[in-house]
Amino acid sequence: MPNYRRHYRPGAVFVTLVAHHRHPWLVDHAAHISGSMHRTHGKHPFRHLAHVVLPDHLHWLFEPANANFSTVVATFKRDVTWALKTLGVKTPLWQNRCYDHLIRDDDDLHRHLDYIHYNPVKHGHSTRPDDWPHSSFHAWHTRGAYPDDWGDGEPAAIAGMQLD
Predict the structure, then answer these.
(1) H-run or E-run covering 71
(2) What's the pLDDT tens digit per position in 118-131?
(3) How many domains does the structure of the chain reveal?
(4) 108 φ, ψ to 5°?
(5) What is the pLDDT of residues 28-70, one digit of tens each?
(6) pLDDT tens by residue, 148-157
């Protein structure tokens, strides 16, 4: 088995969490996922920057209070699993590992925000980012970060990015 190494440093991190065998259960339990993010924040503080929940994976951009983002991810996955197990949902729910990327600078941050918010369109779940309800796009749009027509086509900044 490979020996994976994670790098930890202060700042934001982008993670992709994938459902076990890509079983499409996440959207059906989006409210539980949101609740687990809130409960995780209570145990391991972080600054929530963005997210999108798709049927078989989710992307999450956050800045942990300390550099150990793995603790946040592990607590979140465990909380979702426990919450759904009490509802009779069969486990395992998650793939064992996650993809992570430490955000390097403001350009990298904006590229990953765009990637997250355009992802439902990329995967064919909606025709516009604004049409997908399980995303932080609406909050960013309300703040004025995105114009009304953003996402009518793939943003040039993310063309060719492959993170799922």
Answers:
(1) helix 69-85
(2) 999 999 999 999 99
(3) 1
(4) -65, -40
(5) 999 999 999 999 999 999 999 999 999 999 999 999 998 789 9
(6) 999 999 998 8
CA-to-CA distance for 67 and 1, rounded, in angstroms? 26
Tokens coding 35: 């609740």
Q: In CATH, what number is assigned to the domain containing residue 24?
A: 3.30.70.1290
Instruction: Determine which helix (DSSP H) or strand (DSSP E) holds 57, and give its type and residue range.
Output: strand 57-64
At 5 the pLDDT is 67
Q: Which residue range forms the structural domain that includes residue 107?
A: 13-158
pTM of the model: 0.92
Buried b (16+ CB within 10 A) or exposed e, 14-46: bbbbbbeeeeeebbebeebbeebbeebbeebeb
Q: Is residue 3 part of a domain?
A: no
